[in-house]
């Protein structure tokens, strides 16, 4: 358990250094767009470490720069072509810096792929004194049994979601309470290490320092779910270009996250193949005329496919909107069925609220909420990210849910509230091994 905190501490120190300087950049590396927001922490309200709740740090920062660019070299939320992604990140960061009028050195990034897997851990210890203090919390966190999550995977998020003291459960913060036996339930999210390493390497090649990483499914949930939904048990479905993120929240903590390797780009490629038009034309047709529910009017609404092949007949073709919907609906249904299977695996039906919130760029397809209600359950709504200070109007749509959520995460990361110094009795053997290894490598 100690390794889990040690691996993230270097980034946390970077984030604190950036916060002291007052400026940090947010980078949402997606399959269809790369968004960059520059935040200024004004210090008017000091960000405290004892707030419990994902909105505790919403004030205290302001967006002073924003830019987006078309994503290149990213597929299924993972970097495939390093040089192209590097150029796209440079473009977005430089445009945001220009708008902000300030240079940025540290970025916090989020991504949607990397095959996330969720684990539930449990730990239990005796309270040293009669009152629970930080040392007891640190001991119970380090006592959690680490699962064998396999080689080549890295812990991305680890948060205690519930504390129990003797027979009382459901405590969000047990510090200062009197009891004898402290136990803890923890949620841990692991991802493929290679994906994070590629992202870190790409950010480094852009002459920036990576001050933190987060799952975009988690970030979207923070920004698109209102406080009651986070409290009572809700799911956030972030439908991006190359991947669809699924996250479930209860008691203001994420308890499950997963990813479906399909998104809006797959719908676009279906249109491209079905109508035999270029991808750019298919994207335009999807945006202006797309939908998933056909009515009697749609037979008569004709869409010009356009084209520049030089073949007059081919370039002047028209298709009915019904035909377009017939191409789009099966793929959207397939994505929602995959999401349904992920929710079933997480026993989502046993939560109190069972609210489902759709967000992300691909959630803007007309009629999607009605179709999702049939496949996923009755309580479905379309979600937009929370408003944060200084956010431009162009960046308030569902496509920016993960970027806005990352702003809130940067201001007040839940992982860090519980990052106390771990007890010394768990250190010696491993510290000695590390010292020997360092000595052998350097002499």
Automatic annotation (TrEMBL):
Which SUPFAM superfamilies does the entry mention?
Answer: Actin-like ATPase domain
In the record, biological process GO terms are: FtsZ-dependent cytokinesis
SMART domains noted in UniProt: FtsA (SM00842)
Annotated compartments = Cell membrane
Annotated membrane topology is: Peripheral membrane protein
Q: Where is the SHS2 domain?
A: 24-224
Residues forming coiled coils? none
- Source domain of life is Bacteria
One Pfam family from the UniProt entry? SHS2_FTSA
Q: Output the Gene Ontology cellular-component terms.
A: cell division site; cytoplasmic side of plasma membrane
The record's CDD domains line, in alphabetical order, gives: ASKHA_NBD_FtsA
Instruction: Report keywords, A-Z.
Output: Cell cycle, Cell division, Cell membrane, Membrane
What assembly does the database describe for this protein? Self-interacts. Interacts with FtsZ.
Q: Briefly, what is this protein's role?
A: Cell division protein that is involved in the assembly of the Z ring. May serve as a membrane anchor for the Z ring.
Q: Which PANTHER family match?
A: CELL DIVISION PROTEIN FTSA (PTHR32432:SF4), CELL DIVISION PROTEIN FTSA-RELATED (PTHR32432)
- Protein family membership: Belongs to the FtsA/MreB family.
Q: What is this protein called?
A: Cell division protein FtsA
Q: Which organism is it from?
A: Citreimonas salinaria
Q: Taxonomic lineage per UniProt?
A: Bacteria, Pseudomonadati, Pseudomonadota, Alphaproteobacteria, Rhodobacterales
State which gene encodes it.
Answer: ftsA
